[in-house]
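Suppose you are handed only these lines of text.
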Amino acid sequence: MSILSWIENQRKLKLLNAPKYNHPESDVSQGLWTRCDHCGVILYIKHLKENQRVCFGCGYHLQMSSTERIDYLIDTGTWRPFDETVSPCDPLEFKDQKAYTERLKDAQERTGLQDAVQTGTGFLDGIPVALGVMDFNFMGGSMGSVVGEKITRLIEYATQEGLSVILVCASGGARMQEGILSLMQMAKISAALHVHQNCAKLLYISVLTSPTTGGVTASFAMLGDLIFAEPKALIGFAGRRVIEQTLQEQLPDDFQTAEYLLHHGLLDLIVPRSFLKQALSETITMYKEAPLKVHGRIPYGARGALTKIREEQLRRFIKSPKNSEYIQLISEFEELLSLLNVDKTIPSELEFSNPEIVKKAFDLACGTQTRLDWLNYDSKEFRVRSVF
Ligand SMILES: [Zn+2]
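From them, the structure of the protein bound to zinc ion can be written out as follows.
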């Protein structure tokens, strides 16, 4: 190993071992004081943080880092991050004034994150949720392949486990340095959300913070079953100047603000930051109590593989079947057998010559319920089954 490659290895190791959370030193506002972006009043950062970065003078919601947001939304000690080590690469070898890899390295060192989103699960007022929070400090919260992949994995996990998804958006749009690979993420996330919302009939809430623009607005930000926004947040697709030049028209002053969008029916609710956690927990509780809720199913192709845990769950289920579940299991099983062109008569013992068919059947059967198990219908309490 040459000295240069040894140095390079050390640098990589240092980056990998860098602490991922609680970086007071990586705060954008390095000093003790900062200025409100809206009214210009000078604010003491310590007090500002205690006030969840809401200006004391005018109530303007300043930008919050993803870690601060998670600390605020998730109950202490319950956050379980996902895919922390997934890092972006540079497929186009993109270079403008600065190489893309350089920009990435700077942003990673400055924020302590690998890319512009943090995903994971945790309790929100005791309710298990899957949460994704974008970080505007990392290259303007732009959505590259890593952001798309992490959000998709989060949604897919939530679908399998029957959790509600909350995505807090703060983004300048798709990441131009990754070209088409960024744009593909829009479709990928939307497809995962389709399974989550329309097939599994699970809840997805998007929270739009300032700014939410470009490809993020055009995909998952506006797909929420419920869309919340922070007061005066900038939400739009193209910039104001571009639209004015295209339309050759003067746009209203409050154009692309949360209030304007709410007035025109694009948002459901504007929630001040101090009430956000409460609003989310009350919404999910209300969703839990909804009397006419339809139970969904995950389509066969979108189900996860038969893992060891599922296999065990199935084994236990077969040993103690609840009547209705058992009937559904059998009907699905018959459906599958007809699809596979196997004789429809089911033997009393599960004896098949072809183990592949049995494996497929089990896979189909054990994934039928969307496992809304955290909603206990008898006691109406939340509980978590999947703590691995
Ligand atoms: Zn202010």
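What can we learn from it? The two ends are 40 Å apart (CA to CA). The CA atoms of residues 108 and 368 lie 41 Å apart.
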